[in-house]
Write a structure and sequence with these properties.
The chain is of the alpha/beta class. The chain is built from 4 helices and 9 strands. The chain has a 5-stranded mixed sheet. Strand 1 and strand 2 form a beta hairpin. Helix 1 packs parallel to helix 4.
Length: about 160
């Protein structure tokens, strides 16, 4: 499994969103993007993480960042997630997991002491030119946004 590091080109994608539209990474060129990969919408950890991003969105955007969440969930489930938890940033569906795999965010991981295959909770910070600035793998759902803000030099 390939893992991205700083300086790597961020794999481009065009994926369906929670609103029925599609979103392309290239459409966000010129802006800094926080792309975070999570296993499943409407689960406790993923909800906590999404709500943390939602609650920090205004200050992240003020610092020049756009936030996008990516999971293998279908767009209809992502729409329910958005409505249920008032998510205010785009959620994209990678049903075949090709984009997650390209980012190194899908593969073998440890879960409850067993090796399983699935989404590896990860966050990627992509610069305005489309290169990876930071790649964080195996992040924790709780407290990750606060740690990310610290790593990016943003006040909490």
């Amino acid at each position: 499994m390939t893992r991205l590091t700083a300086g790597d080109p961020a794999p481009d994608f065009t994926l369906p969103t929670d609103t029925g539209d599609s979103l392309s990474l290239k459409d966000l060129r010129g802006r800094r993007v926080i792309l975070y990969a999570y296993p499943a919408a409407m689960t406790p950890g993923c909800t906590k993480q999404a709500c943390d991003f939602r609650d920090s969105l205004a200050s992240l955007q003020a610092a020049g960042y756009e936030v996008v969440g990516i999971s293998p969930d279908a767009p209809a489930k992502l729409a329910k997630f958005r409505e249920h938890d008032a998510i205010t940033f785009p959620l994209v569906s990678d049903a075949d997991r090709a984009v997650l795999t390209a980012y190194g965010a899908y593969g073998e991981k440890q879960m409850y002491g067993k090796t399983v295959t699935g989404v590896i909770r990860s966050t990627f910070v992509i610069d305005p030119d489309g290169a990876v600035e930071h790649a964080f793998y195996n992040v924790k759902a709780t407290g990750h946004v606060a740690k990310l803000r610290k790593d990016l030099g943003l006040e909490n």
